[in-house]
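Q: Here's a chain of 320 amino acids. Please give me its 3D structure as C-alpha cells.
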Amino acid sequence: MLKSKWFKTVGTLALAGVLAASVAVGSVSAGLAKGSKFLGNIIAGQVPNNFSPYWNQVTPENSTKWGAVEGTRNVMNWGQADMAYNYAKNNKMPFKFHTLVWGSQAPNWINGLSATDQRNEVLQWIKAAGQRYSQSEFVDVVNEPLHAKPAFRNAIGGDGQTGWDWVIWSFEQARQAFPNSKLLINEYGIIGDPAKADQYIQIINLLKARGLVDGIGIQAHHFNMDNVSVNTMNTVLNKLQATGLPVYVSELDMTGDDNTQLQRYQQKFPVLWKHPAVKGVTLWGYNENQTWVSGSHLVRSNGTERPAMQWLKSYMANNP
C-alpha cells in the first residue's frame, strides 16, 4: 500500500456541483456543431472571448499535462487546468483531460527516481487527476505510445508479455481513477499512414480485449493533413472503424495561405466529419498568434475570419 502524500496546491479550487459526465453533446447550445458530434478546440492560458460562438468541447492545450501540473515534486499547480475545466462545466461543454501518461512534458524530476518511486509517483499523479477532474467526459490516458514512450515505462510494466504492458497498466489505473469518463488513447501520424494505423490497432485491440478503452484518438496535424489524400484518410478511418470503437479527431490543424487552407478544409474536413466512426473533432487552436504552428489559424488577430473559417461556418450549418 502506498503511503499517503500531502500536496501543496497552487491555484483555484475546482467548482463544486459540476455536471455529470453523461451530459449529451446534443444538449450543448454553444458552437457551430448542433448535432450529436462535437466540434471543439483548445484552451491555453485564458479562455478566448470568441470561444463559444465556434466551439462546444474543451481540451486544455498544456495545463493538464503532468509536467505543467507538478513541475516541482509534490507541488501541484492546478490553476489553468481548473480554469479550462470550470469553463467547460459552466457552459455544458464536454471536457477532455489531456493527458496522463506521455513520454513528453513529464516532470524532469521523475527521471532521477528509483523504479519503485517512479511507479508510485505515476500512480499518485493519476489518482490526483481523477479526484480533481472526476467528471471529465474524456481522458487521454496514454499519448503517442508509438512515437513518445515515457522514459519511466519500465517502472509501470515495460513491454512485458504483450509488448505494451505499460500501456495496459496505465489504462487499468485510469479506469479506477476516472470511473465516469471515457478512456481514450491518442496518437499522431495515423491519418496518413495505413501501416502505422495497423500498429496502432494492435495496441487498441489489447486494451479492447480487457475492456479498458472507450475510444480512439487520432491527431490530425498539418504535417499529415496538408498533403494526405482523401483515399488514404478513408482507408485509415475504415480500419479504425473495424475495431468497433468510436474515433475522436483530437488535434486538427491545416496550414497555408488563405486559398490553400480553404481548399484543404473543403476537401478534407468533410471526410472526417461525415465518417460514421468519428464522433467528435477537436481543432488545435484557431486564433492568430495563438496556434502552435504558423499559418494554421482560422481567425485573424483583428477578429476577422479567414476563408476556411467562413466556409466551416457554412458547412456546419448545412451538416448538423
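Q: Can you summarize the key feature?
A: The first strand starts at residue 8 and ends at 10.
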